[in-house]
Specification:
Elements: H1 5-16, H2 22-29, H3 33-45, E1 65-73, H4 78-89, E2 94-99, E3 106-112, H5 115-124, E4 132-139
Helix pairs in contact: 1-2, 2-3
Length: about 170
């Protein structure tokens, strides 16, 4: 999808404040309210804007630990992957789950209140997931970067390098 400068400006403004009204957004972008609304609707219909969310602060809500769990399954057959993925989607403590290449099959991200909370989650959720061969947990000491998007996603694409003429 090719985004022009107006689309990028709309997305940048909404990433900063998703509660902006069209009336407030349009002048920032340099468009009329109706043109801005049409562009935003098109971005939504194309699936570029998937939704509008509240950003919660886990630390202020008592979730002080971020735990990364590498999961190795006992089988990489399709039925094992599907069973694991179906179960992990229902696990209320899993924030993210990524299928990996390499030695582990999945990487899970959890937020926990403390070590006791993680132990309960480990015993009642993680250890009960199907086809588990190994769980390896790491505890984040602090967040260095925590973004919902990369700023490079909203930057215009770099022009292709100039072709060199043979000498």
């Amino acid at each position: 999808m090719d985004l022009d400068r107006f689309d990028r400006a709309i997305l940048t403004a909404l990433v900063d404040d998703a509660r902006l009204s069209i009336v407030d957004l349009a002048p920032r972008i340099g468009l009329s309210a109706s043109a801005c609304a049409r562009r935003l609707k098109a971005l939504e219909e194309q699936g570029i804007v998937k939704g509008y969310h509240v950003a919660l602060d886990p630390h202020r809500m008592g979730y002080k630990m971020t735990v990364l769990v590498r999961v190795t399954l006992d089988s990489q057959r399709e039925n094992a992957l599907e069973a694991f993925e179906h179960a992990v989607r229902r696990s209320p403590s899993v924030m993210r789950c990524h299928l990996l290449s390499g030695s582990a099959d999945y990487l899970l991200t959890l937020l926990c209140r403390d070590m006791e909370d993680f132990e309960v989650i480990y015993r009642t959720e993680l250890s009960r997931l199907p086809h588990i061969a190994r769980l390896e947990s790491s505890f984040a000491m602090r967040d260095v970067v925590d973004r919902l998007y990369s700023p490079s996603m909203l930057a215009p694409p770099a022009p292709p390098p100039a072709k060199r003429r043979p000498v």
